[in-house]
Amino acid sequence: MRKTALKWMLMVVSVALLFGGQPVLAGDDCTAVYGSGPNHFSLATGSPGELGLLKVLAEEFEKIENTTMCWRKNGSGASLKLLKAKAVDMVMVHAPAAEKQAVAEGWAINRTLIGSNEFYIVGPKGDPAGIAKAQSAADAYAKIAAAKALFYSRGDNSGTHKKELAVWQKAGIEPAGDWYQVSGTFMMATLKMANENGGYFMTDSSTWVAAKKEMTDLAILFRGDQFLINTYHALCQPEGATPGQPFAAKFIDFVGSDRGQRIIRDYGAAEHGEGLYNDAAYAKQYDH
Description:
The chain folds into two domains: 12-115 and 231-286, D-Maltodextrin-Binding Protein, domain 2 (3-Layer(aba) Sandwich), CATH 3.40.190.10; 117-228, D-Maltodextrin-Binding Protein, domain 2 (3-Layer(aba) Sandwich), CATH 3.40.190.10. Strands 1, 2, 3, 4, 5, 6, 7, 8, 9, 10 and 11 form an eleven-stranded mixed β-sheet that branches. The protein is globular. Mean pLDDT is 91; it is low at 1-28. Helix content is 43%, strand content 22%. By secondary structure, it is an alpha/beta fold. The protein is built from 13 helices and eleven strands.
């Protein structure tokens, strides 16, 4: 029994040491690990990881700093909670108000603009709610609610969900009823639900570009409202807060550098005919 207990204790310690003193155990697993160097850090984000951009950035960064990155897949709200709890070294998120609050409260630093995309409202090609004629995102939502047309919400406190709620607020509507379906899951999975069931959904442009060939029953029905521009920032722990903080801070510097920005700007263009993200220089005009 003692040998078995000792064996398990050594396993826990070795896993904890592997990720800079932060155990990666049940409920705290990495969604993916990029790199194999001795310098470990952890990062929480959603679509940049889900769509593969994070992997490319991490592998290029490994060449410079000999790192291993633990990526934890979470929306912006959950990612920021992990940062506040010191469960990750850094985040890449799109929730400007919450980000600024994190910096003001002192549990995040080095907030850096890294790029942008935008939100599209997609839906059935027949557009039963007639949102293609909408004058704004709020007007589009009002038309969906009036028609009681099937609409999918992520409902997960992600950056996308926060933006969706802000649009409903602008429209003066509290959505409820059978037509308003909460998926409780990530962007790609919810987009697929909308495609399969003929629903409306607000997706980011990056996910749409990556998935549009599969979304045979959906079309972009509304876009162009400046309110739907989506800026991404990176933030990390304060100095000394977590063992991986120094490499997280260096990774933010890398992502903001010419080398990192070129990766962001070009990512997906060869495969999809257009890049999935805009760079920070473009995003700056919308960064408030």
